[in-house]
Known about the structure:
Structural class: mainly alpha
Protein name: Exocyst complex component
GO cellular component, one term: exocyst
Keywords: Exocytosis, Transport
Amino acid sequence: MARKSKSNLSELYLEENKDQIYENALAEIQSFELPLGTTISGAAAGSLPSKMAESLPEHDRILQEIESTDTACVGPTLRSVYDDQPNAHQKFMEKLDACIRNHDREIEKMCNFHHQGFVDAITELLKVRADAEKLKVQVTDTNRRLQDAGKEVIAQTEEIIRCRVQQRNITTVVEKLQLCLPVLEMYSKLKEQMSVKRYYSALKTMEQLENLYLPRVSQYRFCQIMMENLPKLREEIKEISMSDLKDFLESIRKHSDRIGETAMKQAQQQKTFSTALQKQNNVNYGRNMHLGRNRILESKNEITLKRTFEDEDEHDEEVLTAQDLVDFSPVYRCLHIYSVLGDGEIFENYYRKQRRKQARLVLQPQSSMHETVEGYRRYFSQIVGFFVVEDHILHVTQGLVTRTYTDELWNMALSKIIAVLRTHSSYCSDPDLVLELKNLIVVFADTLQGYGFPVNRLFDLLFEIRDQYNETLLKKWSGLFRDIFEADNYSPIPVANEEEYRIVISKFPFQDPELDKQSFPKKLPMSQSVPQIYMQVKEFIYASLKFSESLHRSSTEIDDMLRKSTNLLLTRTLSSCLQNLIKKPHIGLTELVQIIINTTHLEQACKYLEDFISNITNISQLTVHTARLYGLSTFKDARHAAEGEIYTKLNQKIDEFIQIADYDWTMSESDGRASGYLMDLINFLRSTFQVFTHLPHNNNDHAAMSGKVAQTACMSACQHLSMSLMQMLLDSELKQISMGAIQQFNLDVIQCELFASSEPVPGFQGDTLQLAFIDLRQLLDLFMVWDWSTYLADYGQATSKYLRVNPSTALTLLEK
Length: 816
């Protein structure tokens, strides 16, 4: 019966799942894409022995392949069912059903074979069930009795467990407290450090708390609170330190001028000390060579050096450094704090940015700085103070200020300083102020050079300022020269005795052996302005030398600078003053003659000026590159201008006399004597030419020069007089002239000829001066003798008696 039921179950299962099996097989078949004409027999032939596959029918072979092949590979086999005849599917299903029934029969046989063993096992299990019930009752009774006996033990055990739990908790609490106490102590220490403003130590304490102590007790809530407070404390420290840094920056901005002033004083003292020491060494060196002669000088230098040392010692007691004037602890503290916090770069950028801003403020001068030296001193002190602080920061910190940064900042500042000084110095018109500015720039440059900053461009600027200084000197000396010329009386210097004579020659290098032989009182040929001009030129050289000091230049360069500036004084300033003096209307002929004498003596003194420059610079004039003074050309030009002005003024004076001439051109006969105006004119010319005898002639050159000036003036005056008289006859407004007027005019010309023949100025050869009136003489002779036949007969011949008579002139006068 059981076997029948199993068989029925199998059949029922196959019946119920037949459609599902078929659908699965069909889906498996469709999932493969085999080429047309391909059969399953070829694909599965390899899985069966070739002889068996040939002997079995086709469907049996397929069923055998399905049973022996893996489920994943059954698709190709099932697909071959559809590759045969149209009814192959039905036949295959019938064959499949028959195969299933065979397997069901085999399963049923196997179940029937094992059924008896199953029944026997059930029977034995039922017997064991009764024994198990008895055993259960016995175990329950034993457990009850055991529980009753162990109640007291359980109670004691629970008490022991509770006590041990308490003991363990206490031990744990002690251990945790031992871990927490150091944390609390460190936190208390942190609070105390914050209260006393020990922020750097507080940061170190925070670092220990975070890295060493707090990780051990990180599970506690108070630890979390501490962890949350630490960043706030760091920010608080950063804010406080930054506030201190801002106060520090404000402090050094206020104290920069004091710091710079102190540093400049120290540099100046050091330079003074070095100079005194060098002089002492030079004295010691020269002592062996000139012991007796220099003993007094040595004692003076030793006293000076001793005083310098004493002053240096006194100043050493009062010397203050930048660190003494400014508390640098805020910047150190802030740097350490930001470095510990990992924001060192932020701090460096902030510090440099703020200092750059301060540098721009320091470099901005006041608008009135050029008015006083104090304005320049305050400006330089602030700049020096700024860079002294930066140099101090550079050497006491690492990385906050670098040499590259300071060099960049200095180059920027140097360009600004040079531009400011170039602008403001151009406003200075006082040479003393320019000189003080130069001294300040030198001290400023030496101070910063001592701190390692390059200052070559400042010394280059000094050369520009030197040119401006020379310009201010030239303006000042131009005024001095004008005052000297205005105050001069243009007369020879009288000396009553030997003392007065030595006073004059101590101021001016005058030498005249002939004059030395004369007895007192006597007169020097030059006027009072000559020694004054000479002394002022020397004062100008001294003033120029003051600017050249401390410029770190060689003696040759200083000598060259002095000669160039002196040349400018002579060729431009003094020459201009002389030219203006000569052109002034109140300067008469006597003054012009004295000016010629003065310029001659000044010209002779130029060689002494060259010696003077060589002595103060210790540079020989024989040096190849030594410049020469251009005073010779300056005074020659002035002398030529004076000579030309003499000629002009003489001619103007002659014109004035001619203008007062009052001829009666219709008179019947002459007065028998020359006109009064002409006699006055001749007397004036005689007295004037006598003045030329005072021109210097102490050597052949000057004698020739003075004679030439006098001769030229005399010849020019005679020629101008002759031309004026000729123009008077030929004046277009004069319509008629009588023979009496001609005779009177002839008398005046005769007086002119007599004046020319009297040799008013020595040196003329023969009748050279009389030739100035030859035109008038031949014209008047022609009319006086009325020798027209001879004139017309000899006209054009070199031997003609009336060769200088122009026909048009003769015709014009004949018509009148």
